[in-house]
Amino acid sequence: AQSVTQLDSQVPVFEEAPVELRCNYSSSVSVYLFWYVQYPNQGLQLLLKYLSGSTLVKGINGFEAEFNKSQTSFHLRKPSVHISDTAEYFCAAREETSGSRLTFGEGTQLTVNP
Amino acid sequence: DADVTQTPRNRITKTGKRIMLECSQTKGHDRMYWYRQDPGLGLRLIYYSFDVKDINKGEISDGYSVSRQAQAKFSLSLESAIPNQTALYFCATSDQDWGDSYNEQFFGPGTRLTVL
């Protein structure tokens, strides 16, 4: 069975600083990987996804993530954050054989301070 | 109008009461899901449905039941609510997979349920 671990529950940063949110997964088969963002009092929306091909994927709002198969990681990065990036971020994985079911990590609360 | 709607948005109830949370979507998707979100645990899948006649248990289905009344509607019921079912509940939808592609899940705004 697959699992997803987000290594930091909270990440405080200052505005315009770079940020990395860490995600590791475990699975015995090939996986598809996703990052979702949840703004306060809202549902989740997709930031980016890795299905195959280039290991560096770009998403909305200037975020990108790199798939590293040897380290089973899919870390999310942004070179310069804004106050409006304050939100909770979820890493998720889907095994090829899981029939579109997602397994989510615990979430990382990103707080951007002025 | 939102593509995925959930009603009610907030609900406070008492232990032992029956509660139904409703989800409707206008995206025309076949697949629908119910998750619960708890602090520090992320989202966990309760039930999912790939079409009106196909309903499956997720990882935490005990204490819950679902009904897929139509392609666009998927309801979650708590037959006898208990305090540890206090959580934020999300409905989501997705299209069918096509070949090697994966279509993202679209989430509703959530229902905050408190069981006293």
Question: Which features does this protein show?
Answer:
heterodimer, A: 114 residues, mainly beta, six-stranded mixed beta sheet, four-stranded antiparallel beta sheet, 0% helix, B: 116 residues, seven-stranded mixed beta sheet, 11 strands, globular
Could you explain how this protein is built, in words?
The complex is a heterodimer of chains A (114) and B (116). Chain A is mainly β and 114 residues long. Chain A has strands at 3-6, 10-14, 19-21, 23-26, 31-38, 44-50, 56-58, 64-68, 73-78, 87-95, 103-104, 108-113. Chain A has no helices and twelve strands. In chain A, the strands form three sheets. In chain A, strands 2, 5, 6, 10, 11 and 12 form a six-stranded mixed β-sheet that branches. A four-stranded antiparallel β-sheet of chain A has the order 3-9-8-7, with no helix packed on it. A two-stranded antiparallel ribbon of chain A has the order 1-4. Chain A is globular and about 45 Å long. The mean pLDDT of chain A is 92. Chain B is mainly beta and 116 residues long. Chain B has strands at 4-7, 10-13, 19-25, 31-38, 42-51, 54-57, 65-70, 73-78, 87-94, 106-107, 111-115. In chain B, strands 2, 4, 5, 6, 9, 10 and 11 form a seven-stranded mixed β-sheet that branches. Chain B has a four-stranded antiparallel β-sheet with strand order 1-3-8-7, with no helix packed on it. The radius of gyration of chain B is 14 Å and the shape is globular. The chains are: A mainly beta (114), B mainly beta (116). The interface between A and B is medium-sized, with 25 and 27 residues.
